[in-house]
Design goal:
This protein folds into 2 domains: 2-67, no CATH class; 98-214, Cytochrome Bc1 Complex, Chain D, domain 2 (Orthogonal Bundle), CATH 1.10.760.10. It is mainly alpha-helical and 215 residues long. It has helices spanning 2-18, 21-41, 58-65, 72-84, 98-106, 155-159, 163-174, 196-207; strands at 49-50, 114-115. A two-stranded antiparallel sheet has the order 1-2. It binds heme C. Heme C binds at residues 105, 130-132, 134-136, 148-150, 152, 169, 172-173, 176, 179-180, 183-186, 188, 202.
């Protein structure tokens, strides 16, 4: 979150002072790689450290270089690539078990970078999950919710449970960047943070008429 903000400010300042497209690209790339190096240095390797996420894939590189504003052609390329990564549960049923979904959205153990918990690795009991409340209000029962993402309270009640909505909700959770090229929402299924079945469980939590989200 910080990085795009810094780089977008830098880009603006560089455009103001430099004038030519070549100068902008060169300065921007230099500053960008300095930031990458600083970020990488702040996560030293060691027990419990997962540093694999410091390496950007093609989509992330493009979003960084464009300060999250890709051209229309680039946006279409990103969305096509991200869409192609979406996989479905073996059952083919995209509406899983909403009770399991409720636990998964609450779990704060979505993919983390660096030391995962202060406890030694062997003692960690978090399991995986989506940490959705970090960014979204979802169940009206949960008062501690972030607002980087829109409120999902009453999500199924307002949108219904047509096949299209189920499909959209599943796909969006699996890979948010199939719909918004440089979304701030993590690509949960794509990055293996949660499994395809768990995406279906969360889809049911958002859509099921029995779920507390829709009371
Ligand atoms: C780091 C913040 C962040 C996290 C964590 C996050 N989201 Fe999002 N989410 C967003 C943002 C920002 C948007 C709006 C931009 C977009 O559509 O990509 C969004 C959009 C959505 C949408 C589309 C909403 C609509 O109106 O169509 C759904 C559904 C959604 N999120 C579900 C989830 C679920 C379920 C989780 C947990 C598994 C989750 N999000 C975790 C940031 C987040």
């Amino acid at each position: 979150m910080m990085k795009p903000m810094i780089t977008s400010l830098t880009l603006t300042l560089t455009i103001m002072s430099a004038g030519t497209a070549f100068a902008v690209d060169k300065d921007f790339t230099q500053i960008n790689s300095k930031i990458d190096a600083m970020v990488a240095k702040s996560f030293p390797a060691g027990e419990g450290q997962d540093l694999s996420r410091l390496k950007q894939d093609e989509t992330q590189k493009k979003c960084s270089v464009r300060a999250n504003k890709p051209t229309a052609t680039e946006a279409a390329e990103i969305m096509a690539r991200e869409r192609a990564s979406i996989k479905y549960p073996e059952s083919g049923n995209l509406m899983g078990d909403w009770k399991k979904g409720e636990k998964l959205v609450k779990s704060g153990f979505g993919m983390r970078i660096g030391v995962i918990e202060p406890d030694p690795v062997a003692k960690q009991k978090g399991g995986n999950g989506g940490n959705c409340y970090a960014c979204h209000a979802i169940s009206p029962k949960e008062v501690a919710a972030g607002n980087i993402g829109n409120s999902l309270v009453g999500y199924g009640k307002t949108r219904g449970t047509s096949a299209e909505i189920i499909q959209y909700t599943y796909d969006k959770i699996y890979n948010a960047q199939a719909f918004m090229p440089c979304s701030n929402m993590p690509r949960f299924g794509h990055n293996g943070i949660i499994t395809a079945q768990q995406v279906a469980d969360i889809t049911a939590f958002l859509l099921s008429p029995e779920s507390p989200v829709n009371q």
